[in-house]
Amino acid sequence: MQINGFVWDIAESNLRGVNMTETSNARVPRHPSQLLLVIVLGLEAAALIAATIFLIFEVLVAPADSFVSAIALTIVVAIASAWVVAIAVGAWRGQAWVRGASIVVQVLLAAVAIGSFQGIVPRPDIGWILLIPAITVVVLVFSKPVQAALARREP
Fold first, then answer.
1. What percent of the residues of the chain are helix, what percent strand, and what percent coil, each to the nearest 5?
2. Rounded to two decimals, what is the model's pTM?
3. Are 131 and 113 in contact (CB under 8 A)?
4. Which DSSP string corresponds to 50-98?
5. How far apart are CA 40 and CA 36, in angstroms?
6. Which of 40, 57, 81, 82 could make an S-S bridge to 48, C-beta 3.0–4.6 Å?
7. Which residues of 16-36 are buried (b: 16+ CB within 10 A; e: fewer)?
8. Model confidence over 66-101: pLDDT tens digits?
């Protein structure tokens, strides 16, 4: 006999007079700061998806100096875009793991942004485009409303 925890939970909840289908579909109110966090993470995810598509196009059309490096870069950017999409979805759902994951991504973005300000050919425009959303997400993650929204743990 296989025990299915979900079915047991519904049966147990019905015994207590709680309808699980009604409570699971209830709309969770979101603070505007949480919505802004989701929007910024969504824009970052969209930019990474666009970069992945551009890199795939470049690998197929333009000859690369190192084909292996071009493929590796494309794969890394594709993985990063999938991860940022997962973080944005997690932020929308109010999951607690989003805090640490988003901080890691933003620190990496800040490192790339700082590198864009320096070097042989500095590109401060790209640096600011990367740095402003990174700082925004870090500030939002540490704000009280977002911390409260992301502190809820699923049972």
1. 75, 0, 25
2. 0.77
3. yes
4. HHHHHHHHHHHHSPPS-HHHHHHHHHHHHHHHHHHHHHHHHHHHT-TTH
5. 6
6. 81
7. eeeeeeeeeeeeeebeebbeb
8. 999 999 999 999 999 999 999 999 999 999 999 999
